[in-house]
Amino acid sequence: MQNFDVLVRGSGCVGRSLALALGAQGLRVALLGAAEPSPAQRDDVRSYALNAASVQLLRELKVWDAMPADAFTPVYDMKIKGDSAGALLEFSSWAQGVDELAFIVDAGVLEQQLAAALRYAPHVQQVSAPVPAALTAVCEGRDSAFRQSLGVTFTPHSYGHRAIAARLVASEPHQGVARQWFRSPDILALLPIAKPEAGASYGLVWSLPEARAAELLAAPASEFEAALNEASQGDAGALRLVGERSSWPLALARAEPLIGPGWALLGDAAHLVHPLAGQGLNLGLADVAALAAVIRAREAWRSPGDEKLLRRYVRARQADTWAMGELTDGLLKVFASEAAPLRTLRNTGMNALNALPPLKRWLTRHALGL
Ligand SMILES: Cc1cc2nc3c(=O)[nH]c(=O)nc-3n(C[C@H](O)[C@H](O)[C@H](O)COP(=O)(O)OP(=O)(O)OC[C@H]3O[C@@H](n4cnc5c(N)ncnc54)[C@H](O)[C@@H]3O)c2cc1C
Prior knowledge:
By secondary structure, this protein is of the alpha/beta class. The protein has a domain at about 5-70 and about 105-155 and about 250-335: FAD/NAD(P)-binding domain, CATH 3.50.50. It is built from 12 helices and 17 strands. The strands form 3 sheets. It has an 8-stranded mixed β-sheet, sandwiched between helices. Strand 5 and strand 6 (about 90) form a beta hairpin.
């Protein structure tokens, strides 16, 4: 049997990106998981907000520039509304001095492009059973079974909410504006995307208490659209549902420890955050970039599974992951709560933040991964 340097377990976006990044360094990589995206991955209706750091990594992996032009859409402005009249927070790429605040990417196309790039990665071999390797990188997502066998603590704290994702077409052009409504208890986000209709489509992410989400998932399209149009107050024009609705349970979790002898956790196998800030995959891709960087910079005598090396990976990622978990959790507590004092606080807080350009600039740079 061939000797491998790294075994990557799990072929989601994070596992595939890691296999590409390490293969490009000339390491012998075994990728355990399906070679082709599953129907669920291919038909994923989600649209991911990716920050500048994630796009840069995908560029280096030769994935970004191979994407069809209608697979990603730049976001120039972001408008966030609170749940009292006039509570508004706005971010603009122009004011922040960046070309765009983020890119919204078609999740299914991203999975397919990563799989396509792997077909031309000479050092990466697809395997159907685990093989011995100096390092095992666990990228199996939130329900990772291998993580459990390592004795890692990973206790998801459920928010009691589900996120409904779908594609929409609006009666008005999106003009590169992403919109979010903090409506306590639900949070609605519309992310501009080119498909199914160029210039007028949105990816929907609507996080709601479980019972309300179940009602809306079961409702006929017309009823769903009525609820959606009521929630978005006509700000984006009249919204029409196109295709299926999918949903995901939402939770906060962090794995402890993140590494052990000859293994490391990355992506959703390492951390789960609420999608309200669109940061889960950005965190996972930052894990990939950090692990690839410490492996590339290693002393010649160290193997990729060397524990000292893996501790460098932990140092590079722990604070960022912790901060994003706390930030999304804190935002959710303040914004999803129906308690009157918090309601006043969040709405006045939004307006106060809107009037503070330096703080907005700091927040934007953090979200962009700069
Ligand atoms: C509604 C919603 C919206 C989101 N929006 C955003 C966004 O805008 N921006 C953003 O950055 N993030 C977003 N996220 C988060 C993002 O979806 C995840 O962080 C990301 O998909 C995690 O990728 P992953 O590769 O770690 O895990 P996964 O995508 O779960 O992939 C893991 C893979 O491993 C495979 N696997 C599991 N067990 C095994 C095994 N034993 N052997 C082999 N293979 C195995 C699985 O089948 C799967 O293919 C959103 C999440 C949700 C729910």
